[in-house]
Design goal:
two-stranded antiparallel sheet, 2 helices, 12% helix
């Protein structure tokens, strides 16, 4: 059931839960992908440059449908962006 009071999507992960996680390669940015609405797009956007190349260990992600470096505002579940 969706909360009717707010359309916000948020998640809080406390310090102890973070410390207990077995992070792959100790990459703290991997925590992003635990939140709902996030997708790991590292291979799509960064490709081989992230695999020990130009930006080793970099990770790219989409949050709620936005592209890398973008923000996707939604109003009543629909994209609401000025392009």
């Amino acid at each position: 059931m969706l909360p009717a009071e707010s359309s916000n999507i948020a998640q809080l992960i406390d310090t102890q839960r973070i410390a207990d996680l077995p992070l792959n390669g100790r990459q703290a940015q991997s925590l992003l992908f635990l939140a709902p609405g996030t997708i790991n797009t590292t291979l799509y956007y960064c490709g081989s440059a992230c695999q020990g190349g130009v930006y080793p260990n970099a990770q790219w992600g989409n949050i709620s449908g936005g592209g890398p470096g973008n923000i996707n505002y939604q109003l009543d579940g629909v994209d609401h962006n000025d392009n």
